[in-house]
Amino acid sequence: MVTGLSRALLALLASQAVTLALGLADDDVPEQWLLLHVVQGQIGAGNYSYLRLNHEGGVVLSVHSLRGDADLYVSGSTLRPSFDDYELQSATCGRDVVAVPAHFRRPVGVGIYGHPSHDTSDFEMKVYLDRTAEPRPPRQAAPGENADGSGPDIRIRKFSDKPKKKLSHKKYTNTFIF
């Protein structure tokens, strides 16, 4: 059981990880971070790309807008977080970084939002395992996993909708599972 003090400590560590990441170049990340995956995508104005994070442990998500402005929304309670429904978010005009604590229930929903100030936004998201984060207690194996809970940590599935003239923030273009 996680106490209030433990949660506060985890939140402090997560905020320190985010502060570190915001000031780092792509190739200059802490050696305690292990790069797990890189996702590149394009999102229309007012649309979302949804991703599902299955990997256990403390994870750092770093989104770099290559063109336009992509914002990051994360939730442990919904697989389709938005600017109206999220637990963690980063909505800057630069690099967006969120540290997902190990205690977040998996799968974690990740939403990348294309800001309406640009017709399209190209983004690259890097997913890091933060090996300094407090590990989550062991869990039961999910369907399709081995009895010890092992199995593929990263799975990607891509689904696309055809772009429409009228865009709303409820539309989505891609879904990735990792």
From TrEMBL:
Q: Which organism is it from?
A: Castor canadensis (American beaver)
Q: Name the predominant localization.
A: secreted
Which family is annotated?
Answer: Belongs to the UPF0669 family.
Annotated coiled-coil positions are: none
Q: Where in the cell is it found?
A: Secreted
Which GO cellular component terms are attached?
extracellular region
Q: What is the lineage of its organism?
A: Eukaryota, Metazoa, Chordata, Craniata, Vertebrata
Lineage: superkingdom: Eukaryota
State its role. May be involved in induction of apoptosis in CD4(+) T-cells, but not CD8(+) T-cells or hepatocytes.
Q: What is this protein called?
A: Uncharacterized protein
**Region labeled Disordered — which residues?**
134-169
**Span of the signal peptide:** 1-23
User: Which keywords, in A-to-Z order, does the entry hold?
Assistant: Glycoprotein, Secreted, Signal
Q: Show the InterPro entries listed in the entry.
A: UPF0669
